[in-house]
């Protein structure tokens, strides 16, 4: 699997061949989610890469969308609903374990059942929810919420620290400072990847909205996905875990199974690598989200007993 991300001059050096092995090889022993801006950028890119059939299906599924209070949300795009799964935190609909695949970053990766009991992890739920989304016999509300979960969870799974754990809750227990970057005080390694590196990678002052050049990002994302391949939830988790092992956790003082006692200074080369990688993962997530929806939301012939509903779009209209 070829990826375009490359570390900058003077930073962590991975040859193209090594990176190919890291991202495409089978598992081998090796020494919170994107913030609002990251998730909305993924959704905005996917919005621009939807094929007409999928675009119509998305519009139908979001036509009656509700917010976390059960009131009409008025949201009609993937960008707009991309943060719904974070907004429902603390409500009965919240599913915290769905946001992560807590795969160890040291030693051989165990089978998914070991870190995903009962299917309560990101990759397993992405598989299940994609099936719900494709099922025209499911209720409009079930498919609407499946769509919103899929948009969010696919983005999460492309954040390296959402598929990694070193006994530190995906980097949330590691306190860091960014060399040469003015930030709002101390932060966790996880937050740095969720928000600060996103802002820097996209060249944005804000932390809420996608950058203005989304159309150009979408065009670039299409090419990136063509090079890297579409993949599936299991392979996306594998990519992110390998990148966490070899980039996100590649800071001075890292030790397997140990949380640094003090504040870790992430130097300038680390920050440059992180920004490049974050940008690529956001673009790749947007393109892969569009690819998944384009494949999942294709019209299918009505099966026996479906009452003659000929297409997904027609059925969605009838059931609203």
Can I get a quick summary?
With 320 residues, the protein is mainly α. The chain has helices at 16-24, 36-49, 52-62, 78-81, 84-87, 112-115, 122-134, 140-157, 189-202, 214-228, 233-248, 268-296, 312-319, and strands at residues 175-178, 187-188, 264-266.
**How many DSSP E strands?**
3
Low-confidence sequence ranges: 1-31, 302-320
**What would you call the structural class?**
mainly alpha
User: What would CATH call the architecture?
Assistant: Orthogonal Bundle
The DSSP helix count reads 13
First-residue to last-residue Cα separation: 42 Å
Mean residue pLDDT: 86
Order of helices and strands: HHHHHHHHEEHHHEHH
Provide tags for this entry.
single chain, 320 residues, mainly alpha, P1 Nuclease, three-stranded mixed sheet, 3% strand, disordered C terminus
Note the topology.
Blueprint: H1 16-24, H2 36-49, H3 52-62, H4 78-81, H5 84-87, H6 112-115, H7 122-134, H8 140-157, E1 175-178, E2 187-188, H9 189-202, H10 214-228, H11 233-248, E3 264-266, H12 268-296, H13 312-319
Parallel strand pairs: 1-3
Antiparallel strand pairs: 1-2
């Amino acid at each position: 699997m070829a990826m375009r991300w490359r570390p900058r001059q003077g930073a962590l050096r991975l040859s193209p061949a090594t990176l190919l092995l890291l991202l495409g090889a089978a598992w081998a022993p090796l020494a919170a989610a994107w913030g609002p801006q990251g998730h909305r950028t993924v959704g905005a890119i996917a919005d621009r890469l939807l094929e007409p059939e999928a675009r119509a299906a998305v519009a139908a599924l979001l036509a009656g969308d509700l917010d976390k209070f059960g009131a009409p949300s008025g949201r009609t795009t993937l960008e707009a609903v991309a943060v719904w799964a974070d907004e429902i935190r603390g409500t009965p609909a919240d599913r915290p374990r769905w946001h992560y695949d807590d795969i160890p970053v040291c030693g051989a990766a165990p089978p998914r059942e070991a870190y995903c009991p009962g299917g309560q992890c990101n990759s397993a739920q992405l598989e299940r929810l994609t099936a719900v989304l494709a099922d025209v016999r499911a209720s409009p509300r079930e498919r609407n919420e499946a769509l919103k979960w899929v948009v969010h969870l696919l983005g999460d799974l492309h954040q390296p620290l959402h598929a990694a754990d070193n006994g530190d809750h995906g980097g949330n227990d590691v306190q860091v400072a960014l060399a040469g970057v003015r930030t709002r005080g101390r932060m966790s390694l996880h937050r740095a990847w969720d928000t600060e590196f996103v802002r820097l990678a996209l060249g944005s002052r804000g932390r809420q909205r996608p950058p203005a050049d989304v159309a150009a990002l979408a065009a670039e994302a299409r090419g990136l996905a063509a090079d890297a391949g579409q993949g599936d939830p299991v392979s996306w988790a594998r990519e992110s875990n390998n990148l966490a092992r070899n980039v996100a956790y590649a800071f001075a003082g890292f030790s397997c199974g140990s949380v640094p006692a003090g504040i870790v200074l992430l130097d300038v080369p680390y920050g440059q690598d992180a920004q490049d990688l974050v940008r690529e993962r956001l673009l790749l997530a947007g393109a892969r989200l569009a690819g998944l929806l384009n494949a999942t939301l294709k019209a299918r012939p009505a099966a026996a007993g479906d009452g003659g509903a000929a297409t997904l779009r027609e059925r969605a209209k009838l059931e609203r």
